[in-house]
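step=encode ok
step=design start
structure_in=
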């Protein structure tokens, strides 16, 4: 299958691309730059701001994975919040408009969303049917998912994956948590009780590939989280153990995080306990069934 990935050059896209290539699929990236990282991957240019896309990308695609979006780990000024929103909504809309105009069908359209869709809760277990939150991240996810859902009108199997915290030692939330630990300043964040829906980057990429290849993953939304929900304090303690670093500092209070990070502190303080039953019922199996095994593979292999 020829799989076109928007934002394929990012953390998740690179891992998905490797897995697809290993399975004999062809991979193309939609990118705002023309960097060639891997000769096996065709790079097609697009500019969602100008609603421009290389028509060869549409011709190439048998299926699409939609990941593109500006990082949320930048200070949330009003201007930057708009970039976070527009980069997801405009990119997805551009794809929809072009596939609709072209009349080209796809085997599947699999789009990223995030568990930020749900509100904060220390006790509720969120399923795909749970009501959305009302904060900034939730509104982004709702608008992004609505754009992706338009592909259903084209009779294309349309899957939206609400992604948890993707574990990678070099990029994303885990690397930010590990950095102070390595210097001996690690500590749980806030009250440490917030639920953190982690998933190893390999398992997340495998979930995208599973959703792409299997009709059993029917049109709809799926939580893309790991096999076990853990609280921030448990995650920090396990990380310290795997890195063989002491953890003696008291938790970093929420007000301090808000002073340091502004509104973006919401990411570190969010509490989301998510059910993975729906994706498991489609036959998906994890490679990493415990946080410790996931962290050991990432840091000690
Ligand atoms: N990593 C996580 O823990 C996590 C959790 C939940 C949801 N997600 C979502 O999953 C998606 C992929 O995540 P990731 O970690 O792979 O992200 P990433 O490493 O930041 O990569 C995202 C890609 O999107 C493209 N991009 C960046 N800014 C853009 C803009 N303004 N307009 C259009 N495209 C832009 C970039 O590709 P080019 O520079 O090549 O154009 C970039 O490589 C993201 O949308 C993210 O919000 C990630």
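sequence_out=
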């Amino acid at each position: 299958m020829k799989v076109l990935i928007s934002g394929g050059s990012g953390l998740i896209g690179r891992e998905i691309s490797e897995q697809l290539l290993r399975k004999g699929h062809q991979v193309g990236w939609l990118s705002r730059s023309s960097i060639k990282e891997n000769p096996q991957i065709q790079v097609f240019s697009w500019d969602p701001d100008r609603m421009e896309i290389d028509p060869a990308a549409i011709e190439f695609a048998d299926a699409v994975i939609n990941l593109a979006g500006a990082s949320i780990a930048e200070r949330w000024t009003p201007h930057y919040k708009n970039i976070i929103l527009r980069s997801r909504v405009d990119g997805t809309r551009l794809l929809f408009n072009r596939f609709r105009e072209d009349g080209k069908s796809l085997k599947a359209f699999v789009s990223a969303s995030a568990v930020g869709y749900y509100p904060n809760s220390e006790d509720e277990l969120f399923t795909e049917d749970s009501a959305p939150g009302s904060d900034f991240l939730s509104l982004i996810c709702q608008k992004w998912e609505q754009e992706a859902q338009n592909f259903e009108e084209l009779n294309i199997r349309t899957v939206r994956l609400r992604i948890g915290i993707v574990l990678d030692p070099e990029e994303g939330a885990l690397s930010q948590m590990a950095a102070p630990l390595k210097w001996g300043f690690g500590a749980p964040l806030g009250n440490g009780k917030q639920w953190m829906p982690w998933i190893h980057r390999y398992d997340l990429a495998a979930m995208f590939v599973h959703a792409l290849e299997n009709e059993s993953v029917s049109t709809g939304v799926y939580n893309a989280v790991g096999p076990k929900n853990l609280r921030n304090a448990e995650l920090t303690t396990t990380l310290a153990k795997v890195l063989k670093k002491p953890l003696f500092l008291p938790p970093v209070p929420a007000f301090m995080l808000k002073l340091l990070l502004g509104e973006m502190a919401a990411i570190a303080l969010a509490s989301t306990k998510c059910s993975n039953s729906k994706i498991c019922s489609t036959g998906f199996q994890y490679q990493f069934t415990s946080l410790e095994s996931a962290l050991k593979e990432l840091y000690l292999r």
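step=design ok
step=annotate ok -> Residues 7, 9-13, 31-33, 48, 67-72, 83, 87, 91, 112, 114, 163, 165-166, 172-173 surround NAP (CB under 6 Å).
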